[in-house]
Each structure stands twice: as C-alpha cells, then as structure tokens.
Amino acid sequence: MNKLDRTLTDAASRRAEEPLVSVNGRTYAWPKHPTVVICFDGCDPAYLEAASAVGAIPAIDRMRREGFAASALAAMPTFTNPNNVSIVCGVSPAVHGVSGNFYLDRDTGAEIMMVDATPVRAPTILSAFSQGGARVAAVTAKDKLRKALGQGLDGIAFSAEKADEATDAENGISEIGALVGRGAPDQYSADLSLFVLDSGIRLLETCRPDLMYLSLSDYVQHKHAPAAPEAIAFMRAVDERLARMIALGARLGIVADHGMSDMAQPDGEPNVVYLGDLLDAAFGPGAARVICPITDPFVRHHGALGGFVRVHLQQTEPSVAEVLQFIQKIPGVGMAATREEACLRFELPEDREGDIAVVARSGVALGAHASDHDISQLSGERLRSHGGFAEQVVPFILSHPLKAGRVEGGAGRPLRNYDIFSVLLNEVKA
Questions:
Q1: Domain coordinates in residue numbering, the chain
Q2: Average confidence (pLDDT) over 117-139
Q3: Nearest Cα residue to 79 out of 235, 260, 335, 327
Q4: pLDDT per residue over 270-286, tens digit each?
Q5: Which helix (H) or strand (E) holds 157?
Q6: What is the value of pTM for the model shown?
Q7: Among residues 10, 51, 265, 324, which one has the fewest Cβ atoms lying within 10 Å of its Cβ?
C-alpha cells in the first residue's frame, strides 16, 4: 500500500470538485491523461542533434515531428536547483527564492548548501495537485532534490540515490528495488538517470499517477561530449524508456534545467578564472568573498567550477563600483553586474544575491581560489560544466501537439523551461 492507492470513485469526485488548480499566480487544468514532466538534466540541444543524426532517438524525433518542439530559456544562473524548483513551481527564482545550489546567508555570513526544502518560499505544482486530490509522484536522481521538490506533496516522492532507504512514512512508498527490479544505482553512473525513468515506467504500470515529475542526473553530459559513443548510448537508452511511457498512454513534456559546455583549454586543462585569487591580489586578502553556487555534494561532476559566481564584499572599502570595474576587465568574464541589476535582469531574490554577480564567457569556468577546487576529481577528463548564458537555451518538447493558436511564451516574453507544466496541461490537444 502507498499514498497513491486511492479509489477511482474518490479521484473522480475530487476532479469534479477541483477542475482547475491555481498555484503561484498560474492556473493549471486537471490532467485528462497520465501526465509526465521530465527534467532532462544537462540535455544541451547538441545532445539531441548528435543522437538524432545517427538515428538513436526515434521516439524523441517523433515527438519533435508530431508533437511540439521549441527552444526555451532556463532560469539564471543555469544550475540544477534554481531550475528544478522553477519548473515545479512554474515561476522564477525571484518568487520561489532558490538561486543556487549553494549560497551565503547575508545575515549570518554562513555558507549554506541546499539539501532540503528550507530555502523554498513557494508551493509547488506537485503539492497543489496532490492536495487537490490528484495522484502525484516525483522521482529524482538526487535526494537533495527529492526533499526540496517533495515539500507538501501528499503522494510518492523518492530518489534513485536513496531508493533502497525509501519508506512509506517518508516517501509514500517502500521496496522500490522490488518495484524497479534492481537496487539503488551508483550516484556517479548513467544508471542513476535510467533508474528514475524505469521507476516512472513502473509507477505508470502500477499506480498510474495523474501527474508525475522525473528529474534526471547530468553525469553523462558532464563526462562526455554530445557525439561521444557513451553519450549516444545514453540518449538511446533514455529514448527507449520515453517510448515505453508513451505506449502506456502518458502525455510527456521534456525540458532541461541547463545545457552543458566544454570549459577546457586545447591541451585539456580546465579553462578557469580563479576570481578569489585575483581579488585578493588586487584588494587584499579578505576584502571579498567569492561564492560558487554550483557547489553541491556531487563535486566529481564539475569540481565546483561553473559559469556563474557571486562576490560578497566583506569591508566598506573597496567600493562595489571599484570591484565591479576591476572584474569587468578580467579576460574570461562575460558580464559582471551589481546585485540590483542582476536581480532585475535574471529575476533573482535580492536577499540571496551577492554584491556583484559574475557570468563567464562561453568556454570559461569561474572559481574562488585555486586551493578551494579539487580538480583532480575530474580524473584527467575535460571540464564540462554550466551556469552561464551559453547553457541557458534548452529543449522544450511535448509528445502531443498543441491546440491551434498557441503563442510561445505569451505576454511578449520567450518560452521558459518553467512553462512546461502550463503548456502540457493547458495547451495540448485533448
């Protein structure tokens, strides 16, 4: 038994009472078919094109021809937590409060890694539907996301990472190994994502949720370029599982939280600007503190190096203007902006932004001090990471076509990855 084991009569009566669900200022239609949103972590459009060129993704290609396919913009910075939370809340970080995997508490000065729902300030679409009577499930690759995305969810929520530890009380389900047919995978493996998809398939076959969210891992994309045999094999394996979900009658929506870029020099060494070291040399040790919001427990993916960092000034001198001018002249920096400008441009929460936000040029990673980053964990491989503008364009794919007259993005703005629930539930043909 689990929380999704409700009678059809109860579900039908609830649907009659709650035909629409409103959350964070947006309204969503009740799903008429099992509806699945997949966050294809790190799926830069280049991975689709490379796999399509060799015929490895027939199901996705069919979706792009017969359903709907477009490009969308991910939330900035292009990291996992801000974008997954944006997707399940349907709004920008300015509303839900999560602007990185790692941040500095401006009141206490403490560095905080996001490992649960504590920083999330808005309800999720998943929780709203579950509390309205829908059968809802969320399966994530990483447990930190499960805790964040499962906030207020009255249903199933578990991670591939901690699948063997799932309980009815904590996760709404237990004995996941028996359900999926294998135990929890290695967190540094392609199977972490495949386990999420296999779990989704088994839930469709057994519990048949009304609404399901599946969040994958970007292990493969960090490790392999789009045309690498390992990447093609992974894309093929994902595609086979998507085909199975469609065959089970699901409506699919696929987006990514961010793309992925090569951030290595021609000789293979990481192409990194260690901003903390440069600021120490220019203004003295301790004048500024560089926070790398990509930092998470999975540092082997990226060595905590990405395309976006925050600078917090620790003294009244130098001024923000002086430091900003210095950073803007550093080769490899694509943009540096004050907190106010960054929050306005990127829709970020002001209390979690630094004094200066810094975005790297394409192909460049930003770090704090060289001593803060253990790049030996990259095992001699090229650094592939994300966080900046180069990783902001992501796929937006639906398994079924839209109603006539759909305008991308709406209200004069481009389509965003966090529009996926709205488009899938409100705009797809019945």
A1: 8-262+388-426, 272-385
A2: 94
A3: 260
A4: 999 999 999 999 999 99
A5: strand 156-159
A6: 0.92
A7: 10
